[in-house]
Specification:
The chain has 443 residues and is an all-alpha fold. It has one domain. Helices cover 66% and strands 0% of the residues. The chain is built from 16 helices and no strands. α7 packs antiparallel against α8. The longest helix has 34 residues. It is globular, with a radius of gyration of 22 Å.
Length: 443
């Protein structure tokens, strides 16, 4: 048995979290180097150094509370787990139905392509305040409820049938939601939460299941479909701009702050080969995932920093529901429309001290949440808190996860779904046979 296999069977509680966190940043820097762009705003070296400081501090404090994972059986009974899955998927279906009704009432036309629908939504949203409608409120609140059952199932030892059923239902909801919202960020969150759930599973000492051919094919198929969806969004944006994907990549690079991009490109509408189109889409997607590095170098060069870069969506949400007064003349952050990395956002709002303190607190909270969950492994709220903190760490090169529109609603689902599940389980308990106290089903 190799050292890696031993770690998977009996891991140090946070080794996979740290390995995943570091690997994501390594991939981020590798893509940045392969693209070969410089920043329009100045040298990228200070930004890279500050990002490395963030990585070091967050990783160090996440590892500051070491714990040995003790192998344990499932902490959630199969019956309770099945009810939770049903509740999560059912709430998502209701939410998606509300979202679809809201889009239909607004007159959003999806017949052309997803990008046209997105432009329509943006235009309708301009200048609007408050909650738009009953359907909009419950659509946004409930449509991402499928995240909770998928995450919980990944942390438990379940049968392949239950895993596949949950994964297919959750992934189907993800694609429909992403299409209706004309957004790709939910797909990124789904991948990040799935990885976070695996970290929690390993922290619980359950190890990874023995994979067979159809498991690999199934996961690879979902990954391919998700990548295809993201790529199609950029391809249709290029098409709507009457540009080839290569031309769109150059224009997009300029918009995102890369030095070699060309800002004013004449729309030609020239057809391109499939190979060139694929290469262009990959280039645009890569730029999107690493553009925070160019923005960070621009942040460092600023003499004044208007507005704030973090908690932008949370503030908008509170304004919509009336908890915060909406000020028309309130300044927006300098690079509006672009994502800063989490260290970049911390630096913009609070300087170097804020970056150091923020990275330390994030790492410490992530480590502490895992320790608390180990003491109560059946607590779904703690699973939600732990995986949410891990997701913030995993997406930190790209953005602050808390500023993704769906993130607060995903976190909310980890509170509401366990409550609804417990109520249903208590109501049904007199009519069901007694469940065995210990459930251990191999995946």
């Amino acid at each position: 048995m190799t050292v890696f296999q031993k770690l998977l069977k009996q891991p140090s509680a946070n080794w996979f979290l740290l390995a995943s966190f570091f690997l994501i940043w390594i991939v981020y820097f590798s893509i940045l180097g392969l693209l070969g762009y410089e920043s329009q705003y100045g040298s990228m070296l200070p930004a890279i150094v500050l990002q490395l400081l963030f990585i070091l501090l967050a990783g160090m404090f996440a590892a500051a509370l070491p714990a040995r994972a003790v192998p344990s059986p499932n902490s959630i009974g199969v019956r309770h787990l099945k009810i939770l899955i049903f509740v999560g998927i059912a709430l998502s279906v209701v939410g998606i139905a509300c979202l679809l009704t809201d889009k239909m009432l607004l007159g959003i036309n999806y017949m052309k392509d997803i990008c046209s629908a997105r432009y329509q939504m943006v235009n309708l949203a301009q200048g609007r305040t408050g909650v738009r409608s009953f359907y909009s409120f419950f659509g946004n609140l409930l449509s991402t409820s499928f995240f909770a059952p998928m995450v919980v199932v990944l942390t438990q030892n379940v049968t392949r049938k239950l895993f596949y059923t949950t994964a297919v239902c959750a992934f189907s909801c993800l694609l429909i939601f992403s299409f209706l919202a004309a957004s790709r960020t939910a797909i990124m969150l789904f991948g990040a939460f799935s990885l976070a759930a695996i970290c929690v599973r390993l922290w619980g000492g359950r190890g990874l299941p023995k994979l067979i051919g159809k498991d690999i094919f199934f996961v690879a198929g979902m990954t391919f479909i998700a990548a295809l969806f993201v790529g199609q969004v950029f391809a249709c944006r290029a098409h709507n701009s009457h540009l080839t994907t290569t031309q769109y990549e150059a224009k997009f690079a300029n918009f995102l702050g890369a030095a070699e991009g060309t800002g004013d490109i004449e729309a030609t509408g020239v057809k391109e080969s499939a190979q060139t189109k694929i290469r262009g889409v990959i280039g645009v997607t890569a730029l999107y995932f690493v553009h925070s590095a160019y923005i960070f170098s621009g942040i460092i060069e600023l003499e004044e920093r208007p507005g704030h870069a973090l908690f932008i969506y949370a503030e908008k949400l509170l304004k919509k529901v009336g908890f915060i007064k909406n000020e028309d003349d309130e300044p927006t952050w300098y690079f509006a429309g672009k994502f800063p990395s989490l260290p970049g956002g911390l630096y913009y709002d609070y300087g170097v001290a804020g970056l150091v303190i923020g990275a330390s607190i994030l790492g410490l909270l992530a480590g502490l949440a895992g320790r608390l969950w180990m003491k109560s492994p059946g607590n779904i709220v703690l699973i939600g808190i732990t995986t949410s903190l891990y997701v913030i760490m995993f997406l930190s090169p790209l953005m602050f996860a808390g500023d993704v529109m769906t993130f607060p609603f995903i976190c909310f689902a980890f509170i509401t779904i366990p409550v609804i599940t417990s109520v249903i389980a208590k109501i049904c308990k007199p009519f069901l046979a007694k469940e065995k106290p210990e459930i251990k089903l191999p995946l």
